[in-house]
Fold each of these.
Amino acid sequence: MLEIKNLHVKLEEEDKVILRGVDLKIGAGEVHAIMGPNGSGKSTTSYVLAGRDGYEVTDGTVLLDGEDLLAMEPEERAAAGVFLAFQYPVEIPGVGNMTFLRTALNAQRKARGEPEMSAGDFLKLVREKAKTLKIDADMLKRPVNVGFSGGEKKRNEILQMAILEPKLCILDETDSGLDVDAMKLVSEGVNALRDAGRSFLVITHYQRLLDHIKPDVVHIMAHGRIIKTGGPELALEVENNGYADLLAEVAG
Amino acid sequence: MIGQAKPDGYTPAPNLPQSGAWLRGLREAALVRFQAMGLPQRRDEYWRYTDPTRLTVAQAATVSGAGAGAGGVVSAAFDAAQALQLVFTDGVFDGAASSPDLALDGVEIDHLAEACAHDLHWARDIYGQLETNGQTPVARPLAAWNTAMAAQGVLIRARAAVLRPIQIVYQGTDMQADLILHHCIRLEEGAQLTLLETGCSGARSNHVLEVDLGDRAQFHHLRLQGEDAVAARVTHIFAQLGCDSHMRSFTLSADGALIRNEAVIEMLGADASAHIAGAALGKGRVHHDDTIFVTHGAPNCESRQVFKKVLRDGAVGVFQGKILVRPVAQKTDGYQISQALLLDDDAQFLAKPELEIYADDVKCSHGSTTGALDETALFYLRSRGVGLVQAQALLVLAFLAEVLEEIEDRDLAALVQTQLEMWLDRQQTL
């Protein structure tokens, strides 16, 4: 599904190197988690995959099902199946949530050469998905994320994911700012989307989220590289011992 | 020929249009006012941001046929509103193109071209009178010239709530025409009227709209102007409001080489409210100027000025807005906001907000912002699959949403929104 090879990235504006050779391979249907201390390059990885401005790829490749992801515009990546659930979902005053969802879905369908979804079918789809995420009609009517609580914003991200049905879901610290109940709701939403044809990259600081969204593979990232890869037990190790031991191990 | 201010029109002694007794003196007085003021100059305080030359040169620049009237805001925009239509073709009332029956319950409609021959007309208390009141403290010579020279326009007097909107449509193909139109609206006590104005014609036009609102009258005004052509337009609205009367005026200006919209609103009765709003869309060599002067002349009145401009490729937007609160106007609630969205580095927005307050128990606020599209929001939309151009259009519409809120009739607001969307669609293909 996703293959990142030797990815080097620096900030465009300043001469600051963030990623120094990331290698990562995610197979179809797999759930991978990336953990790591602040500033290790986790969020940068997610932004570079989604195509955000401000980053310069100085070396390496990213393939999505064999296609060169880095050559695509952000909207082309979305149509190809990439979805980034933002750590800080953006508020867009003046754009209704429903308009936003419908515009996004139909833009992707159009880009893939599929017919637009009718208003009736769309409404049915949104209602069904919103219900399981406990998103009420009012949240759908309001402008995108405006006046939403932290939990509501994250649920709204998962709603978008459920409607757009991407191939590769990248969750950037989706657990941040969530209470226990909200985390459960969000995780259930994610788990409902788990599928043999859909892969996940879950970026988190904490083992907590991984109790709910069980990963197949856990990577530890530090200083712009993946320094260790293992099974779910690796997350527990971090939870108990912190990153110090791992960092020392790699340095040694 | 009656009705056209010919290019050599700005002479000290022009031939005034033939007029009956009620009008002759008003025209002569207007000419005297105009002569005393002279043409506007760049050095005048309220013309500092807008070069009046194109409006004041003897010869209006001929508009090239190609592209004139193409696209832009169209007169068909309000078809769904099923308004009674008064059509002016190349600045002259066109009965054949207008609604066949101009009778409407509660309202009388006259044409200046006909009414001017009479010896008496109710409009004598309005025509040029509100314009005269609006000449102080700031001179508006082009409006005085209009009063002196206009031979075409409509005179509308409403006595009750008029259920069907009245629409004035400007159309035409004469690309050298130099047009002057003058409308007078009188709403008697408790009357209600919705007036729509759409389209543009001619190489140059000068419109004056005088509005006299009786107590508890309600006047809704919606105007779509501009086109993808190179024409110069100046419009003036002069309004006076009686007790507890309400005025709502919204203007959409799309492209057009030079558009100067002036509104001079005076609240003379207590508890009145006036909301003046505008959305301007400009791309390329476009100059849009909104110059608004709101006077609170009675207690407990409310006013709002809401203006938003979307500018790109060298387009220039100007907003000059003033709130004057007279000593008698206690409990005034005045609000003013002007905002510009600059879609590239070449566009420019110039704003001059002014408050002049002589009462001590008032609430007045104003603000002005200039900015670019929110890059983060743009990326968020694109990351969901929305293409760059469509994402920009969504954010532009979002920016304009607040000013569309000023249109109280949601059906008409939706029609204006459609015009905005069409303009944005056209931008994608240009």
Amino acid sequence: MEVLLITGSTIEEGRLAKGGDKFTDDYTMECASCWISPVDFASLCSPDKVKVTSRDGKHSIAVYTKCTNSVCPGHVFMPRAIWSNVVIDPDTLSTGSPLYKGAPVKVEPTEEEVLSAEDVVLKVYVGRQ
Amino acid sequence: MIFKNIVCPVCGAACDDIQVEFGDGKIEAKNACKMGNAKFQEVVSSHRLRQPLIKAGGKLTPAAWDEALEKAADILVSAKRPLLFLGSETSCEAHEVGLKIGEYLGAIVDSNATICHGPTAMGIQESGKVGATEGQKKIGATS
């Protein structure tokens, strides 16, 4: 399913990040998450986890799902964190910031494991499994 | 000891009415949100670095302040193309010192303003909106 990815803070993400708790299970559960509208969640067959893939198909990440009315159909929301940063559009349009809001992504159900923040670093940025 | 009218060090809303009570190894922040509170608790957290550490043979070992400052100065003045990225959630006074160090070194100086609030300000200006901090709004609302 093609959708627009909106990323941003949540208050719990902020509490955990500012409190130095990025390497905790609480942080993973809060941030390795894709919020999906009930309509889109149903058409994806209500998956526990989804794989979110960047528009160019080069980057993808598995995260837990959260079905919520706070997201419009056609949009998904991911808390700002290392998981969403794997798939945001890197184009800055000369502003210094990548496209944190509104990047087209593909979302599909997955059985892939959701990685911890440390494992995302090792896999995506260090190139180790 | 109670400190009043502290500026929150976290987000760009810059709430400036935080009251902080500090003593006995504990800190309590009033008027701060969950994020602000979590940040103030970092002052007394177990994972705060409380002394300088110097890496020797790949291992971090405790060092005296004088030795650490000397080492840091050596690294900076020996740098061929120094880049100072001034940290986020840092006081204006610390940024001022950072800018002075950057000028002295002939360094490139940048900060979170470029990647965080710079684009925000550009967007606000381009759309013709007025910019204001949360602190200003609170004062405006009560005066």
Amino acid sequence: MTAQLIVEFTYFVLAVFIGIEVISKVPTILHTPLMSGSNAIHGIILVGALVIASTAHDTLTVVIGFVAVLLASTNVAGGFVVTDRMLEMFKSRRPGGPSDAP
Amino acid sequence: MTTATSLIYLLAAVLFILGLKLLSSPKSARRGNRLAALGMLIAVIWTVVRLIPHVTPAGVTISVLGVVLGGAAGTIGARRVRMTAMPQMVALFNGVGGGAAALVAVSELLRLGGSRPQLADGLPSLFAIVVGGLSFAGSGIAFAKLQEMMTGRPITYPAQQVVNALIAIAIVALAVVVVVVTDGPVALAVLLGLALVLGVAFVLPIGGADMPVVISLLNAFTGLAVAASGFVLNNFALIVAGTLVGASGTLLTKLMGDAMGRSIGNVLFGAFGSVRSSVGAVAGAEGRAVRAGNAEDIGTMLAYSRSVIIVPGYGLAVAQAQHAARELADALEKKGVQVQYAIHPVAGRMPGHMNVLLAEANVPYDQLKEMDQVNDEFKHTDVVLVVGANDVVNPAARTAPGSPIYGMPILNADQAKQIVFLKRSMRPGFAGIDNELLYDPKTTMLFGDAKESLTKLVAAVKAA
């Protein structure tokens, strides 16, 4: 393995542990928004799609790049907006409840 | 990567991690989502800045066009979608992400090669193509099932598992060919095509009621496909963000399964063999009598009871009856009746879906009781009002080992003194199985649209 690959593999392994640790205690009512929120985060593929698309030379790459950017942008925008809409609705009648969070 | 790029991607990764952390608590969830969005914005803007010296004219055009069109489609879709259709929307957004990951990997392999790629690039690319493609097609089927563009029931045929295994073997074989011999456009296109077929075949036999778990799993798949693309592009942000989603999504899938009392294996492959027995149960129940009541009598009964538990289901959401349910609860409370809502973990079509829908109708969520909090109270409750729900109160989950929902924790509605079902018809619930509780002597049916029935009940309660 090259040095670069080893470094990347290290990021990967550490990110696995963080990913598991960070959501270990999530109440059932937040399962849907959490799924939707993490769904938006993998929209980071937009970064990869932009790298491919913006430097495209040949027709095939232009087509593939365009579709990739289109799909990834839909993922990012839709994912964050729909999650925000869901979470906006969690309100409580009690003062000091979740709706009072900034 | 330059130092600046590394640090900025690190900042984005930190924001993603904090965002996920905050998403795990109701108080901070919205802030968490916004932090993650900020991380995304930072990563994308920096990528654009970094790319400017290298762009081609055609590249700029398609990038701008893609971002504008995709961003608009995503935003409009997310703004317009009704809360009841949320699960399929999430499936759709997940699917397009998987498709993008597959295409990025295809494109990168084409750029690197024409000949056989190095293993360090080839393996993650192939993984991203196969898993991303599978997630894209599988999410599409999940969308179609939830949108009722196709039947929500498991679709099974003989030797299905053998067929699926053969597709998987073909994919592995073709992947070996790509690595050892050639990675030309044709081979990659066929590979992507096979991955799409596997995605369809994988989700077809899974019932609509289990779709949330499947979507969550495909969400984790997309995350891993994105991480794999990150290995190919040597991009830290993709590796870390994709892996975070892959890992947390896998755990979330397991948590969802736990809430339904099912193992993931049972959800994914449980349809095989269990279908026949459930069909038998439906046939056996045909022609049995139920007791149908009218709104006036039931309204009076509700008004003179001490405690009422409302069990809302997807039918309530479909009829847009959340507000009518709240009016009924308000009217009953004015009469001194104690009212609570019992929320099954998978009420609606996703864990937490019903909480969102009732929150939309301004039901304060201190009235919403989770299953574990409320299950012991049913036996002291005078009337349980089941509105548009079915499977989540079906005693078959406790008593019928052959049933597809056997083992799912249910609400103990059958232990209450009286049970009232508001249903449109005797049609079975989303799992497609009959409910013994409908025929119980303690049960009264009130047929009709949930919203109209509830409105009539409000009038009857006020008059009582």
